[in-house]
Amino acid sequence: MNFFYQSLAQASSLPNVVAGQDIKLKPDLILGHDGTWPKVLTAWKNSGYKLTDQAKVMVTLDHAYPAPSISDRMFHQELYQLGKEKDLKLYTHGEGVLHQVLAEEETLSPGMIIVGADGHVATAGAFGVLAFSLSAEQLITPLETGYFTLIVPELVNITIENNPRANISARDIALKILGTLSGEIKGKAVALSGSYFEQASMDSKMALCNLLPEGGAVTAFIIPTPEKGEGLDFTIDAGSLEPMIAVPPAPTSVLPVKNLEGRNITVAIIGGCSAGRLEDMKVCASVLEGKTIHPQVTLIITPASRTVANQMDELGLSTILRSSGAVIMPPGCGPCPGKHFGLLSPWDKAITTTIRNSPGRIGSEDAEIYLASPLTVAQSALRGKISEPRQ
Question: What does the record list as coiled-coil region(s) (predicted)?
Answer without folding.
Answer: none
